[in-house]
Please model this.
Amino acid sequence: MGHVVSTARNAADAMAVVTSSPLDLVLCDVKMPGISGLELVRQIRDIHPDLPCIVVTGYGSAESSLDALRAGAFWYLEKPFDQAHLDVVRRLVEQAIEHGRLKAENRILQSQLHQRYRFENIVGSSPALRCVLDVVEKVADTDSTVLITGESGTGKELIARALHYNSRRADRMFVTVNCGAIPEELLESELFGHVRGAFTNAVSHREGRFSIANGGTVFLDEIGDMSPNLQVKLLRVLQDQTFEPVGSSKTLKVNVRVIAATNQDLEYAIREKLFREDLYYRLNVIPIEIPPLRERREDIPLLLQHFLDAMNREKSKGGAITISQGVLDRICEHDWPGNVRELENLIERLVILRGEGEIEVDDLPHTFRQRPATLHAEAPRIPAGGLPFNEVVDRFEADLILQALKQTHWNKNRAAQLLGLNRTTLIEKIKKKRLSADDE
Ligand SMILES: Nc1ncnc2c1ncn2[C@@H]1O[C@H](COP(=O)(O)OP(=O)(O)OP(=O)(O)O)[C@@H](O)[C@H]1O
Ligand SMILES: [Mg+2]
Model:
């Protein structure tokens, strides 16, 4: 079949080959001088758990094929075999090698994932984030349910993965379900599976995410969007880890850790009768609140550098891209309504568009280029007798609008841009305030 073959006359010689050269497959007999083939398989599995072994067992001998499988063999071949069996051998060899390759690959991918979600890769030095990470470290290796809250883009999923990959469940699946993105009718079968014929399109049996995640973690994203009907079913899973697939009366039991996340105010949703209070308490065993980026500005320069480094590593040509002090200043002043995700996307765009050299203020989107100095314009002192609030605010607005119009020679498009307003909003305000060039 084109494979390179090494041979050994006994188990000790075989171990010498196994430890000194990279192998894809071991084929061995059971009866050999010295150590038996089954013991050899055990020893090989200890040092190379991914290396598949096929054991050649004697037909009707005391060591059955079952013993070979128990020892950790991938499969067995019964002696004697003749020309007619060669096809079987060929297929078996191919399958065993493929299996070993997949296992090794899977191990590498897993370790990359572990690497990626190590605490060191969660960037930030703000007290607020350190506080979050303290909790994460303490509860990662427990089975406690965690509820992660925070605005969009703050890192909820990142934290959920860090919890999983730093727990003893790390070698099992981390399964994400976005409760907001899946239509209600489908979500139940997505979570719990269905049997054939359960509904019109259920042409075959389907495993639910809770079964797939058995032994691992289920991450329920956007939990606030779950319908009340499903909330009841989820409550039961949290209480006793049991559920029934859609259309089935058979109760399944799983061992799953649940992590949920939301950017909604669940306590408000409870008051509005949209979210079950009992479910909330079941989920909120360990609450983790990730503050928005604007409330932990110390993290901005670190994250910026982190994303810039990552982009530079990915770039194939040209030298490393840097950013100017002006850009750094503006990025640090920005409010980041889209939080870390917005920052990550901005850096990615800037690096790609620039291609090489230094990113300058002019490369930034328009909103970043205005210095916010005027945002801190002083309000008038309130005299002892008070002041007419609405009138003062009106006057202030009118002043700003007139200034912008003057600067742009009454080009309403550009004036609106200068003020960060919609053109229509600006025009409405001009009308309402009856502003004209005479007011300048
Ligand atoms: N502290 C951090 N260090 C490094 N990367 C981070 C950090 N926080 C967030 N990120 C990155 O920012 C992006 C957004 O994070 P994530 O997807 O976890 O946010 P989210 O809260 O789930 O957002 P959404 O509500 O939009 O789903 C991801 O690429 C994530 O890796
Ligand atoms: Mg998310």
Summary: The pocket of adenosine-5'-triphosphate (ligand 1) is lined by residues 122-124, 150, 152-158, 263, 303, 306, 340-341, 344 (CB under 6 Å). The chain has a mean pLDDT of 90. The chain has 18 helices and 14 strands. Residues 86-116 form the longest helix (31 residues).
